[in-house]
Amino acid sequence: MIHDSSHGQECLPAPCIVDTGILVNKQDIQQLLGDLGQVRYIHRQGGILLAEGEGYVMEVFADPHRATLVANHSLYLNVCSFEYLELKQVPELDACFDLVYDQRVLRLIPLSNPLQPEHRSSQNPTLEAMLAAAMANQWEIPLDDGESFPC
User: Fold this and answer.
1) Cβ–Cβ contacts within 10 Å for residue 63, how many?
2) Which of 81, 84, 101, 148 is 20–30 Å from 137 (CA)?
3) Could you tell me whether strands 74-78 and 48-61 are parallel, antiparallel, or unpaired per DSSP bridges?
4) pLDDT class of 95 with cuts at 50, 70, 90
5) Which helix (H) or strand (E) holds 27?
């Protein structure tokens, strides 16, 4: 264990989640959901089924003033809409992601596999166009700016 004598605090290792666990860090949740692609969703509140269907994760963001939207087979997921994400292994499924806030659970079940070549080639065409424009115009794209999450 590393001790930081200048601040009198111990430096603990970051968590390591493999296949199951609970994420509370908004940046971790955003990173995990960012490449889901096509999903089946199940929305429950207080154990009551409110909605279910299939869609494509179009955007994952953190903004306390915007909503999570699920409509027209498109999912716009705001990590600030949820307290935590529970990563589970479910029989007959590889994994599922439960986004939880109080009694509300939005379960996401991946339908696309990031190991399959067609998953990578079917990413959001708008995002691909923006990245191509950024590369062509040599825009500065910060890889990690220490972004803090407002929620």
Assistant:
1) 13
2) 148
3) parallel
4) confident
5) helix 26-33
